[in-house]
Design brief:
alpha/beta, globular, 8-stranded mixed β-sheet, 9 helices
């Protein structure tokens, strides 16, 4: 059924919550970058944020994702947008990146670092940053410490390591980064480029796979996720954390 997940997500503008304005807001926190910074976008998907980064920067962007069709879509879109010479698209696993140490001024990751665990990502990616380089990630967090049992139990299965947003600060410090900026993503970032087009896509696929029980269960699961968000969005969401590598 993994192919079915990709069949849902490949056509979406973004493969998770996010929006261009939040990408811009986070990028503008990166002060003192070189004229042509080297940027790594980890878990880029089809590259909604990658293209925004290309508009904001005159640097080069290495975009990495483990799903070939996502990368092929980004290649086409980058070429059409006139950024084909500045965006290098790679198929690869974020858990086993083998770039030389100190390759990048910025490592960017929207909604993907939690796939390997936030703490693991902060430590594993640090060597790839140049001195005083930046790491900017969006992470799924609790906005409140006390939350209803229904949504707490729901995420206990999906993301048991999910933290209260302020607790991430100490995780960042212990990984030897200096906190630069924090802000929560607006609720519309879940809907405009993600949930709304996903609902439309699922409606199409429900008909296509109307006789496939496993497929219908996947669609039901995604519908439950959207319903949970409608009901409990004040309690959780994605937040941007912008941090800078501290060099001793």
């Amino acid at each position: 059924m993994e192919e079915l997940y990709f069949e849902i997500f490949e056509s979406l503008p973004r493969q998770g919550p996010g929006d261009d304005e939040s990408t811009r807001q986070a990028f503008h926190k990166l002060t003192g970058l070189p004229k042509r910074p080297e940027i790594l976008d980890v878990g880029c998907g089809t590259g909604g944020q990658t293209l925004t980064l290309a508009k904001l920067s005159t640097g080069n962007i290495t975009a990495l994702d483990n799903h070939q069709p996502f990368i092929e879509t980004l290649k086409r879109n980058a070429h059409q947008a006139g950024y084909g010479d500045r965006i290098r698209c790679l198929v690869g696993d974020m858990n086993s990146m083998n770039f030389p140490e100190g390759s990048f001024d910025v490592i960017w990751s929207e909604g993907a670092a939690n796939l390997m665990g936030l703490k693991n990502a902060l430590h594993a990616w640090r060597p790839f940053l140049r001195p005083n380089g930046y790491l900017a990630i969006s992470e799924l967090v609790w906005f409140k410490q006390e939350v209803p049992p229904e949504i707490r139990d729901y995420f206990a299965e999906l993301y048991p390591d999910m933290e209260y947003y302020e607790h991430i600060y100490s995780v960042i410090k212990s990984a030897e980064y200096k906190m630069v900026a924090y802000f929560p993503l607006p609720d519309q970032s879940w809907w405009t480029d993600y949930y709304t087009p996903a609902e439309e896509r699922i409606t199409e696929l429900r008909h296509k796979y109307r006789d496939t029980k496993d497929a219908q269960e996947i669609f039901d699961s995604f519908q439950l996720e959207m319903d949970m968000h409608k009901k409990y969005s004040p309690y959780y969401g994605y937040s941007f954390y912008v941090m800078r590598k501290e060099d001793g």
